Records
---
Amino acid sequence: MFASVRVVGAGLIGTSIALALKSNGKQVEVIDIQPAAQLLAVDLVKGEQISQPDLILVAVPVDVTEGVVLEQISSNPNSLVCDLSSVKSDLQLKVKQLSGNTNNFISLHPMAGREVSGAEGARADLFDGRAWIAIENLDADDRAKSIVSELIKICSGTAYWMSATKHDEVVASLSHLPQILSSALAAQLNAISEENLSTAGQGLRDVTRLAKSDAQLWTKILLNNNQSISVALLRLIDDLSKLEKDLSSKNERNVKSFLQSGIEGKDRIPGKHGAKERDYSFLPIVIDDKPGQLARIFNECAQVNVNVEDLSIEHSPGQETGLITLALSQSDCQKLSLHLIEQGFKVHPAKYR
């Protein structure tokens, strides 16, 4: 449905989408007001100049999105223009009021990112299995919707249509609040000595990963969605206040309920493409540290026709053995376990979670 794309904004999101589109054979142009950023993105993507693109993607900071969108719509009346901003508010309404060309505008938000910013962190597979929120627009024609569907498919994502108001409420809880929590926790570390920080485990690093995100970019995002974020933030503050009281009073039942509620919430996060997360079985196998052991296991998987969804390897230099843990469906796990035991592998009881 479309052959050429102009990406306005050579940051992480814009360059990553450009890489995905280029690998699909599309003509791609990348432009940016910062010459150095544009040059890097163009070199990465092998971009080219396009005079009349079929699709224009606006991937610029949220505070300048409206102006850039209106400029591109005005200069390219036959192109479909899509912004990729993480806050929607009344952008669609302003486009209708100021351009009168909303049939060629659809607002999108790919729910993906990294803690590193700029084209330096761009990846063609950044959006694999990710949700794309598309803002409902009754004025958009079938051609525009078809182009959006193709774009999301190329990026291996799944589209979810909703109103702009609902979008801002949803991302306040699912995207903006996690950034606030990660930054808040990381800020507490400034009061801890370097010696004591040396004892930090992986859990702290996991929870504070988002704290490395671009502060200037996120300041604009949080301020532009301040109303929806405030609602979500007040709910969280209320929960934390109750937890503090329960800890002070040593209320074991309420503290356990708080933690259990977190387990239940985590379990509700869907898996790939928005589907319900699958309950895998995890099969531990001890192998000797010598060439060909992992290949042997996969050959046996092929023999009994089982599908391995994921795997982890635990091994340290100098260690004579290693632990391979395979993630499979429960039925495949049982089949493979029996088969590997018959073949002499050191298989241990599976774990289900």
---
Amino acid sequence: MKKFIGFIVIAAIAVLGFVYPLPYYIMQPGGAYELSQFVEVENAKLDSEGTMSLMTVSMSKATPFTYAGAKLSSRKDLLPETQVRSPHESEDEYNLRQLKLMTDSQFNAKYVAFKKANKEYEIKYNGVYVVYVLEDGASDGILKPGDEVIGIDGKKIIRQTELIDYLAEKKSGDKVKLTIIRDEKEQTKSVTLKEIPGTKGKVGIGITFTENKSITTNPKVKIEADKIGGPSAGLMFTLEIIDQLTEGDLTKGYNVAGTGEMLESGEVGRIGGIDKKIIAADDGGIEIFFAPDDKITDEVKKLNPGIKTNYEIAVETAKKIDTKMKIVPVKTVDDALKYLDDLKQK
């Protein structure tokens, strides 16, 4: 009997050790994935001798045993839950936000690529997409992340500025009727405006949102990367689309990868986990890696004295792992295109 009880105790400890969630995430190198498996431009000439790859990091919830393992590993970082998710944001809401960031990244990639290639495109705006509902805000318990707000008080909302301007004339206690789309069905929600938590008297509906938009292109572009979250593949999506849209081979026979958010302006935005992506790129045989050379303002430096640019972190990591991979700083997509254009054929 004692042996049986001992066995049960040990089994319970083992289960808890591997299953019980801790308020931490473990970040470690992911992989390098060729973009040709995710991006397809209609009637494209796929004649590249090299490859374009996006990079990923692996994020997992820590348990007691995996936490201990991460503490002993130089390839893994432990991140407090509050550093990964917004306050009061559930796991599902976090995943939804990451997928929306990826969708917006794909929009920007198509937009920038088609502008650079002088190809046809058309943008359609359709209100705003709810990213996060503030706790104790006006819409708490009424709206949900993923809702699409397409109207207010009978007025159609097409651009986000229209919603912002309309609410600017309102005061605390005013009621508005929002027309939303949830689960592909149109609904009406009544919201009483109140002060937005954390602001100095600013009144609103208590949500963070992004513009809800889509782009139609000629030729058509299909991007299938639903299982990859976040905006960090934006730069590489853009380069892959341009490579498929235009004559020639951007890669010049090299294995090319990189990271960075693609902004509508063509600038390359800062991302997280670049050190882990450098390690993953080296593991994956990447020869050229584009790293955001992001500008850090004096204000940000004051708040974070030790902060470094993505490029600086990438170079430090490359030296640490003694890789022969070339790290290339890019502020804009034009920087990456110029580097590839000047590159000699392998």
